[in-house]
Design a protein that fits this description.
The chain is mainly α. It is built from 13 helices and no strands.
Amino acid sequence: MIQTLFAYIRILRPLNFLFVLIAVLFGAYYNISSYPLPYPLLAGIAAALISGGGYVINDYYDYSIDMINRKERVLPSGLIAPAKAKYYGICLFVLGIIISIFLRNPWMIAIAVFNSVLLFIYAMKSKRIHFWGNLLVAFVTASTFIFGSFITNNLRNALFVGLCAFFYTMIREFVKDIEDKNGDKSVGAKTLPLLWGDKKTLLLALLFWIGFTLTIVWGYPELYSSEFFILLLVGIVFLILIDLIILITKPLIKTAKYSESFMKVHMLVFLIILWTAQ
């Protein structure tokens, strides 16, 4: 019983679940003085539930791939039956949308419904729509920050962070596709590394790295001479560039796996730097 309960929690990707909650709070509070916590927190829970539903549904449709790439995951290990996981994911979507309705903001309700539909479509079709699937994930990630901003009317400030998140997620998605290419190939998937090869995919990732860098330059002109701007460039921008260069020169699945893991840390550090720079 306890093992099953933990399996239902584990399939939500608890760290990612927490990150989505933080992203919504970040979008709500970034560069504003104060606002009561309950509504932003409720918005964060709604977004995290929808995100969790996306992870569960994705695991359901990726079951055969994960049997090759990630046998340690909940469904391949047999801790939850695939059919139960599907219904669990749908319930998470519905619950997240219901909570967003209680927030009484039409834009937030629209984002909750739209993202739920997108995540379901992504789970079903992502391995066959290659680049568009990557764009979809990046959009949903960026919209998480925007979602929180509607609570506090903080759209202008959150847009900068959302754009950074969009470009960053696109880079990470390409690296993740390289990491997963063996399992993807086994089911006839059409991801960019399988269609173009690793190096061309990583060269495309470099274009999104340029977009990420330009967004930082555009969003923080007042910090050009400050230690925060230097920290942003050296600690985040160039670390990502180094990651990509290493992958281009040595495009191995093992290297991509480590790089994708480090990129999660990069994003968290990036948000901490932005928050400190307020």
